[in-house]
Amino acid sequence: MTVSVKEESGFKYIESGVDGEVLLLLHGLFGALSNFEALYKRFSKEYNVVIPMLPIYEMPILEVSVSGLVDFVTRFVEHKGFEKVHLLGNSLGGHIALLYALAHPERIASITLTGSSGLFESAFGSAFPKRGDYDYIKKKTADTFYDPKVATKELVDEVFNIVNDRSKGLRVVMTAKSAVRHNLADKIHKIEAPTLLVWGKQDAVTPPFVAEKFHELIKNSKLYFLDQCGHAPMMERPEEFNEILATFLKEIPVTSDRHLAIKA
Questions:
Q1: In the chain, how many domains are there?
Q2: With contact defined as beta carbons under 8 Å apart, do 65 and 177 qualify?
Q3: Domain for residue 71, yes or no?
Q4: Which of 22, 30, 54, 169: CA 20 to 30 A from 13?
Q5: Domain that holds residue 194
Q6: Is the pTM of this model over 0.85?
């Protein structure tokens, strides 16, 4: 993604800056701003698309947790002065989105989850027994997608470098363990915001039954499955994903209190 990254008050983020409703995107554990490239291009002229870089690898060790990332998002939304946001999260980003929505329902215009953790997930596990094995990391990264070609060398190299950096690797393991501890099965029913669930039929990390359980527990939700698609539909099936999202967002009634930034 060639868009400039802004840095201010300890936050790094991308923002389209148009005068429209806020679409706030949260990436996953090994995610990056580039994960949302197609989505950004599609929506950045109509919505104020904002993508904060979650400080998964930089947080003080005592603050490393899913709760710590929710606190980060809370501070970021307050810093930007957003009254309400359309919140979209992939994988761990979906988990963070749900926890944020539960803590701040008044800030939520809608929620979109794709391959979200929070109920069940199966990824690298709680340790990296083959940290120095590039082929192992390549296979695990490719397994995230239905089409292994989506796991480009650039993406595999990025994951490999994260895993083999002792400090970053430790934070990944700690965050993953925290996510497992923050199971939301007994809280999800409290979500009242309009919720869109877009899932890959071949998602091996958060399988289809996870999406069905989210759909069952969130009363105001819609569920769509995309065939020949793994854990990151917005990357693997971007056109279909974007059309579903566009239709969903247009169906949400605009209310007078939604306007996006607190006016000084």
A1: 1
A2: no
A3: yes
A4: 169
A5: 6-121+179-251
A6: yes
